[in-house]
Each structure stands twice: as C-alpha cells, then as structure tokens.
Design goal:
The chain has helices at 2-27, 29-42, 92-99, 107-112, 153-158, 164-177, 180-193, 198-206; strands at 48-54, 60-66, 81-82, 117-119, 149-151, 209-210. It is mainly α. Strand 1 and strand 2 (60-66) form a beta hairpin.
C-alpha cells in the first residue's frame, strides 16, 4: 500500500512539474531569447549544449543547457573537470550564467518532455562515475528511482564540491525520504545558493567541479 501511495505521489509530482515548466517557459521566454542572443554574440558555437545523461531507471536522454564553454570543451584540457572560475574554456557570458545557474534554464524543456523534474538527483553523464547504469551498485541504483532534477538535495548541500560517493549517498537519502515539503525546502535553498559565491571557493577546498 505504501509503495502505491508513493507511486501516486511521484505521478502527481511529475504532472505538476510539467505544467509548471510549461508556464514558466512561456513566462521567461524573453529572458531565454536575450540569453541566447548574448551567447551567439559572445563566442562561436551552438546556443544549446546537449549531453547524454542517465535518467529515470537508467534510461539515457539528452540534457539541455545554455552553452557556457567553448565548443567541445569536454575534450579539451581537464575534460569534465573545472578546477576554478578562471578556466579559460568558460566564455565571458558563460561565467555569468554559471554563477547564477541560468545555464540550467533549458532543462525546463527536459521537464516538459517528461525526462526530468524540478527536484531530484542530478543526472550523471553516461560514462562517469561509472560506465553505464549497469555498473552502479544496487544501493547506488536507488538514486535512479526518481526522475532526475534541475536541482536536488546533493546539489544544495555540496554544490559542485562533493565526491560522487558523497553525492550518491545524499541522493539515495532523498529518494528514500522525499516529500512535497522537502522539495519546497530544496527549491528555496537553491534560490539562496544562486546569490552566494561559494561554488568556486568550495571547489578549491574540496577539489573539483564538473561541466
């Protein structure tokens, strides 16, 4: 009975999220257009960065972000790792977008498509930290029992500074204890973190950040 209730709760969560993402996309469409124009004028390359990620129950999908780095940045220098805000692969516009997390806005389209939701574990790339869903441990696979989110518990607790073992543990904790109240709390924590400057200083203390 409890599992059926949780499944119903998840379906409501996803439905509300898709409607909310559609309305927000319409509302902020002028902002999306302005950001797109700034990216085009700042550096050559596509406006939208697409990357394969692992989603709900290990299904692969293309995540959307505003491009904040030079084209093919993941194949240059430190690859997926960003060691500081001075990484020369980050564009001028990209630096602003990353600091304010505005590069994540195109993920509203992922929500509308039913691939993501507003709050959930962040979707990893298909080949890191493990090469494919099947190589995650049974415990780690629990993080894929809820659709990935634009933000999540690990995101607000660690930003980009934690190790994958730390992030997975927090993601599993979220999946096992999620509620509407927890989602609302995470959204407010995310809004607060957008206006502080801990992201890169934390990375310097803890080690590394991902594209």
């Amino acid at each position: 009975m409890k599992e059926k209730v949780r499944e119903i709760e998840k379906k409501i969560k996803y439905a509300v999220g898709r409607v909310g993402a559609l309305l927000l996309t319409i509302l902020i469409s002028p902002i999306l257009l302005i950001i797109s124009l700034c990216i085009v004028l700042d550096s050559p390359g596509a406006v939208i960065f697409k990357q394969k990620r692992l989603g709900y129950r290990g299904k692969e999908f293309d995540i959307y972000k505003f491009r904040t780095m030079v084209t093919n940045a993941e194949k240059i220098g430190d690859g997926l790792v960003i060691r500081s805000e001075n990484d020369n692969r980050i564009t001028r516009v990209g630096r602003v977008l990353r600091k304010m997390s505005l590069d994540e806005l195109p993920q509203f389209f992922n929500i509308i498509k039913g691939e993501m939701c507003f709050v959930g574990p962040r979707p990893p790339v298909t080949y890191h930290p493990y090469d494919g869903y099947e190589n995650y441990s049974d415990e780690a696979k629990k993080r894929f029992e809820i659709k990935p989110g634009i933000t999540g518990l690990a995101q607000v607790k660690l930003r980009n500074a934690g190790t994958w073992d730390e992030r997975i543990a927090i993601d599993v904790q979220y999946v096992e204890n999620y509620s509407w109240w927890l989602d609302i709390k995470i959204i407010f924590m995310t809004a607060f973190s957008m206006f502080n400057k801990e992201e890169y200083t934390s990375n310097k203390k803890r080690g590394k950040s991902n594209i």
